[in-house]
Design goal:
The chain is mostly helical and about 280 residues long. It is about 75% helix and about 0% strand. Helix 1 packs across helix 2. Keywords: Cell membrane, Membrane, Peptide transport, Protein transport, Transmembrane, Transmembrane helix, Transport.
Length: about 280
């Protein structure tokens, strides 16, 4: 009995981690989008008489240095970060997977050509690529999304190509080809079930990386500009007031921490080792 309990412990811990991550992420999504449903304060409205006021029963998160509602600004910044991260991951994942399967399937010149493009982009640091795009079209969240997508797709392409190559050379796929089944069937029946778990886990890690990148670029005043609510930008705006209102500075930091923690918990890998008593 004890050995059975210990054998189930890793799977139980893995399930609890995923449940906790899903709970945290769901709470953040509700906090971000609930004001759009029930109405809330304007994140851009200023009232200097409320400047740096601490949390209270009337304003649970207090106000920033310009008297703007911290709750409204955090919710708007969350919507921006989550939306850009999700869009970047989906936009990077779809072409990355398709190109990876194509390179693994056809091989030869096609594999070398796509691989050369990905390696040439890898030679350029991802942050530098995003900085170049945001310098060309400043104050445009679309450039952040485009730059992060251009960085992320390479990872999905390389992982998909490595995973799909042995699958496409397997006897099961060869039998499907001989029976006349096309590429769509082979992708749905043989390839995707084998690689989906790893790629979805990689997508969660990619979303966390995108959120960190957006916040880092906002912290150095690149990307979106004031007064647009963005977590990194909020941190740099509130940094001079950390002694007067530490609660205001800690709030965007805590939100970033919770978002990344939730995604890391969702993407966590189950321990395949066996524990012994």
């Amino acid at each position: 009995m004890s050995s059975l309990v210990f054998a189930q412990t890793p799977a139980l811990r893995f399930s609890l981690r995923k449940s906790l991550g899903l709970f945290i992420l769901a709470g953040l999504v509700v906090f971000a989008f609930l004001p759009l449903i029930i109405g809330g304060a304007d994140p851009l409205k200023q009232s200097l008489r409320h400047s740096l006021q601490p949390p209270s029963s009337a304003a649970w998160f207090g106000y920033d240095h310009l008297g703007r509602s911290m709750a409204a600004r955090l919710a708007a910044a969350l919507r921006l970060s989550l939306g850009l991260a999700l869009l970047s991951v989906v936009t990077a994942m779809v072409p990355g997977i398709l190109l990876g399967v194509l390179a693994a399937w056809r091989g030869g010149f096609i594999d070398r050509a796509i691989g050369a493009v990905s390696e040439s982009l890898l030679a350029l640091p991802g942050l530098l690529l995003v900085l170049m795009l945001t310098a060309i079209v400043p104050d445009n969240p679309a450039m952040l999304y485009l730059g992060i997508s251009l960085v992320l797709w390479i990872e999905y392409f390389r992982v998909t190509r490595a995973l799909a190559r042995p699958i496409l050379n397997s006897p099961a796929v060869e039998a499907s080809r001989l029976l006349g089944f096309g590429p769509v069937y082979i992708l749905k029946r043989h390839v995707w079930p084998e690689i989906s778990a790893i790629l979805l886990r990689l997508g969660a890690f990619g979303a966390a990386s995108a959120i960190m990148a957006i916040a880092a670029l906002g912290f150095v005043s690149v990307g979106v500009r004031p007064p647009t609510p963005e977590l990194g930008l909020m941190m740099i705006e509130l940094l001079p007031y950390y002694e007067e209102a530490p609660h205001a500075l800690l709030q965007p930091i805590a939100v970033i921490f919770l978002m990344v923690l939730a995604l890391q918990l969702l993407a966590g890998r189950q321990n395949s080792g066996k524990e012994t008593a």
